[in-house]
Design a protein that fits this description.
Number of helices: 21
Radius of gyration: 31 Å
Low-confidence stretches: 1-30, 377-392
Shape: elongated
Strand content: under 5%
CATH class of the domain at 4-115: Mainly Alpha
CATH architecture of the domain at 4-115: Alpha Horseshoe
Structural class: mainly alpha
Length: about 400
């Protein structure tokens, strides 16, 4: 209720039409009581005092039983207080008195949705969502429509609605939250069905392995991924997942890197355009000091997919190590365009500019590096703030400032 109330206050003015002092006092100017309650209701609505508004509106409804605006406002305040049966009754009364009163059908649709009368609510909300009276009401209608679709067992419609809301405002926190739950629930339902209809399939085993990887149980994930490979040696992407799990389990272990290298190479044999696999092979070579080989793999990765920020950085730092700072600049600028706040890109670009004698560029990039490097750790996204791993695609090895960074 605390979340809905402020938004629905907008409906009070929307439903009021003309003010009470005009539509009532003029109609029955000789009735002092009606004038008094009209004024009290108008003032209470203006200051968003629901309790006082209900008291005045109920008295007005008793004294003016044929005034649709009174019942419309009374219904809106009832709704704001969560008194949905009373709100629906008031809205129905208003519509009986004036079938063309603006926005009351929509509010009655809200009431139907809250009262579980989803089939009655659905056509009203669908029509209003296509042509909302204003953006805020469109948002409220959309969120309510998602609930209705979900309760009716129509997840596809719910997802379509949430996508429309995201298109209207991609940064709305509540819509993002609701979307994450919708997609998460849909994924869980789909995985459950997969387990039911094909419990012995490679796809079910693949899903199980990915879940283990998401839980950071990398040793068990590797075992499951290898079972998938045994069942279907030509399944693309599995060797890559094995290699990533090996690296995540033992990031500084030479044997793990060697095993991972073999897996990445096997993945490329099945999927030659896998830029991530090319990048990972290049990173293993770079950490071994095999810079020429690393350069070849990083170059292919960037050629396949220029949007991979870490591949751009890795290619640039390898060029710097090979005494080719001029060639590194374009890749670092591309990485910065992809992510302007990455301290690694700015530090490496400063290093390249220094080698090229560009003192102004060096000073500027070092300033940017220090700005982003000095951001307190607790203000940066932490592990507890990350999206759940089970909802995320497999990540690649990140480029960070390490001991091998050129000084």
């Amino acid at each position: 209720m605390t979340q809905i109330f402020p938004r629905l206050i907008l409906c009070w003015a929307l439903l009021s039409g003309s003010c009470f002092s005009l539509c009532l006092a003029r109609e029955q100017a000789d009735d002092a009581a009606i004038q008094t309650y009209s004024r009290e209701a108008e003032e209470a609505l203006a200051r968003k005092d629901a309790d006082a508004a209900i008291v005045a509106l109920e008295k007005l409804a008793h004294l003016t039983p044929n005034n649709p605006e009174v019942f419309a406002n009374l219904g809106a305040v009832y709704y704001a207080q969560g008194r949905y049966p009373q709100a629906a009754e008031a809205f129905q009364r208003a519509l009986h008195l004036n079938p063309r009163i603006p926005d009351v059908p929509l509010m009655l649709g809200f009431c139907d949705a809250e009262l579980g009368r989803t089939h009655e609510a659905l056509p009203i909300l669908e029509s209003a969502f296509r042509h909302p009276p204003n953006p805020e009401m469109g948002r409220t209608i959309g969120l309510k429509l998602v609930v209705v679709y979900t309760s009716l067992g129509q997840p596809t419609k719910a997802l379509e609605t949430i996508e429309t809301l995201l298109a209207r405002d991609p940064n709305d926190p509540e819509v993002l939250y609701r979307a994450s739950h919708l997609y998460g629930d849909r994924a869980l339902q789909t995985m459950t069905r997969l387990a039911d209809v094909a419990p012995e399939s490679v796809w079910k085993r693949m899903a199980f392995a990915e879940a283990l990887e998401g839980e950071k149980r990398y040793d068990l994930a590797v075992i499951e991924y290898r079972k998938v490979i045994a069942a279907d040696p030509n399944m693309a992407g599995v060797h890559y997942r094995v290699a990533r799990a090996l690296l995540l389990q033992s990031p500084d272990n030479d044997q793990a890197r060697s095993e991972a290298l073999t897996e990445f190479q096997q993945d490329l044999a099945l999927e030659p355009r896998n830029a991530a696999a090319e990048y990972e092979i290049g990173e293993i070579c770079r950490r071994r000091g095999e810079f020429e080989s690393a350069l070849d793999h990083f170059s292919r990765a960037v050629e396949m997919d220029p949007s991979v920020e870490d591949a751009q950085i890795a290619l640039a730092r390898t060029l710097i190590r090979l005494q080719k700072p001029k060639d590194s600049v374009s890749h670092l600028l591309a990485a910065i365009q992809l992510n302007p706040k990455n301290e690694t890109s700015h530090f490496l670009l400063a290093s390249a500019y220094r080698s090229l004698g560009n003192s102004a560029g060096y000073t500027n990039e070092m300033s940017l590096y220090q700005r982003y490097h000095s951001v307190p750790t607790d203000s940066q996204p932490g592990a507890d703030e990350q999206a759940p791993q089970t909802l995320a695609a497999p990540e690649i090895t990140k480029q960070t400032l390490g001991t091998d960074t050129p000084q």
